[in-house]
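Archive entry: two folds, one per protein. Generate the first.
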Amino acid sequence: MREKNTVPVWSGNFAPFRLVFLDGDEWSPTIEEINTNSYESSKLFRSSLNIDVGIAPLSLIVLFDGTLVVPICSDVPKSRALSIFNIHLTNLLLGGLFVKEVAPDDVTPGSLNFWGYHRHHCPVGRYSKLSQSLRTGRADPDESIKLFEPQKINKKDYLSYQSVGSSVSEKLHANFPTVFLPSTTAFCEEEWERALILGWSSIELLIDKIWLEKIYLNANVKGIKQKRRKDFLSDTRTWSSSTRIELLWQKGYLTDELYALIDKARAARNSFIHAAKKCTPEDSRSAIEASIRLVDAIASEANLPFDFSELITMMDESTEYFRSPTTDEQGRLLVQPKFWRYPDPAPGFEDWGDRPFEKIPEIELKPLDEKA
């Protein structure tokens, strides 16, 4: 039975954890409050803004702790809620705000009351559980430290990223978010093969979009029926992706640099798909960068703002592999940590002390004979 003054909702949680501020909002718990989970947590349940996502008169609501919420109704089953969340996040990413996708297990039911406060009912995924534990003060130290000087964004900037990204998305293939956001998320998590395959799918959708506008819609030739020519140009057996890419480059719609990136991604994709050859981080990156640069080509044609270099930099910095060095040549940290804590004690290590622990001769390690 539903609680009075509430509506059922789907919530979606994603990375990175980020607070969304209204004008006048403040958030500055002390490190002591973080360590003891005694910070004022009520704001973490609260709504901060709402966005039109095509389900009028309903809307998507963004909470202070970054949780996304849409109403549960016949028109919005769980699968559509997941799609709504990730389309919205794709718009934010294209607008210039770094985000990762919502995973299916991070879409969970909950309640939103008439005062704009939300409650998770049964969080299952990694980030929905994080949201719940931070709200309820049951987070472990590795989680609760996220509340100390967290990433944050104000309502005005959030809506600006959404608006810019939405304008760019309108010029792209309708299914683009289905592959682009998962590809960039996989890249950030260094799942190189998944990033390559989904990145290549993104490239194909973007090439198809450019082909449609530059070649297919300009198919008129005197003496040839338009339908016959359009049927010919839409035949993917004749005009495969590689053939389309070649022609678009020859006609000047793709730069040499972009053509080279696409070709590298295509070769890596074919090697992995047809021969299961190893996908390198550089192979994966070529697919991600090529897809971002293709978005830039389409956005530039439409005179839309799109900072492809900043987006590529964000992708690189989100990985361990491509990230800027964190230490100098001597191994010293370039940025000193503000806080630290001892590692948890483990059996056999000095911090375990004199407490007994099970010792099994069969698994004990022996020093190698240095003379051997």
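Generate the second and append.
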Amino acid sequence: MGTQHLTDALIRRLPAPERGNRIVYDNTVTGLGARVTANGAKSFVLTYTVRGSGRQRRYTIGGCDRWTATDARRRARELKAEIDAGGDPLGDIEATREAPDMSALIERVREEHFPRLRASSATEYERMLRNYVLKHFSERTKVADITYDDIDALHRSITRRGYKHRANRCIALLSKMFALSIRWKMRADNPCKGIERHTEHARRRYIKPDELARLVEALRTFPDQDIADAIRMLLLTGARKNEVCSMQFEHADLTAGTWSKPPASTKQDQPHQVPLSAPARQLLAERLAKRADGEVFVFPGRGDKQHLVNIWHAWIRLCKAADIKGLRLHDLRHSYASHLASSGHSLSLIGALLGHTQPQTTARYAHLFDDPLRKATEQVGAIVMNAGKEPSDETVTPLKRGGRP
């Protein structure tokens, strides 16, 4: 090694060593040198000591074929200013290289967050990761490098395909992932904050009387009566699909006429007991009489599944057979609530039967009381207008306590 005033001409004349490398240092900027390897490669380097640790490091500025000695000297002075301020240029590069990428974040979310979710939620999130997130972000994209604009672009991309609700769900998933990344020290902020999501309106699709009649007939002739019975239970109880599909015989007390749903099957992760109607008890009694030895599930699964899981394809076939359009399986739950409301039952009673823990969840069905309320107020109007008149052939039904006819 030696110290000389580095010039481009001098560097071009530097001979290659027989092995290893040789560094010629500049006599103007301390630590700046021109390194020559045994194969003749030449590059500018800066040797420096990290403040605090005393560790000596060597930072490669660039190849001598791309950098002039003057430019390398200017860059070396900039780096030395950073080092004097406590920086570590080479350490920054290594930190960036070792920083967690999207593959690391996704893997940790799968391992630590997904097991806490319901199986159906974890499956849905996995589908969104595969179909949207990993197609938009490279697995090697650094978690800390993702910006608000990147998230917004994904939201707009999904929206352009016509999936507004799915776009919102995907942003919700990413927001949770980046919230976890903050907890795990992968980044300092959440790039999903401030993303304007689409306004969502609760569905108001209920099965109509004529549709219900056609569906009942389609269920009667459906080849797979296990699935048909599961859908009948959805109609009769207003329960969620997972609650019905995972129902066990021990959860139903046919003598008391109750169904005790365990926390694992309910959305709120709370036990929920509901009364069973006579048709529901009869359905369960028939399945109990036919169950195989040792079978614990009311609707046993196929293959390696313990209980019935996927009935979506069967539902599509049933809707086609019954000539029903735009009705989802979950709409049967809403329809159950509509039957209760149209019969004049209160929102609190509807919420209790559906297993709602928040009154605002049940409030979505308030509009269904229009017909009972109109009937009630018409009866009051008739009483007022007929006050003092002789009774006519038209019978006015008096109001009972509580405001219901």
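Annotation attached to the second fold: The first strand starts at residue 2 and ends at 4. DSSP finds 16 helices and eight strands in the chain.
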